[in-house]
From TrEMBL:
Protein name per UniProt: Putative redox protein
InterPro entries on file: KH_dom-like_a/b, OsmC/Ohr_fam, OsmC/Ohrsf
One Pfam family from the record: OsmC
Provenance organism: Paucimonas lemoignei (Pseudomonas lemoignei)
Amino acid sequence: MECTVRWTGLSGMTFLAETGSGHVVAMDGAPEGGGRNLAPRPMEVVLAGTGGCTAYDVVLILRKSGQDIRGCDVTLKSERAEKDPKVFTKVHFHFVVRGRNMKANLVERAIKLSHEKYCSASIMLEKTAEMTHSYEIVDDNAPIQQQ
């Protein structure tokens, strides 16, 4: 895996990251640090990537478990150390899983497997942060709309 990050110029603190798969992610700093608030902060991107990593796992595990999953949202709330390096010290993941006749034990298992075995991002963050999880299941008995 590879990524190149480039500072966009002498004014401001905007950076563009180009991933090995050819995608571009913009990042910027806070105004008090010389940024212009044009894009997410780098640590916000770390948090978003962790959310994407674990949501991906949960959906995949639930599908493989035969669950009729129709949606998965995860909200991450974090705290950071006050002094440099300002690592994450706490991260709470709240999942909202939508589907038909979802089994709570399988949702719990999917979240646990993601955080203990598959999601490399959350496993890395766990080295500095206390990780907590919660979830809710929304029963979606409406048929899927075909477009």
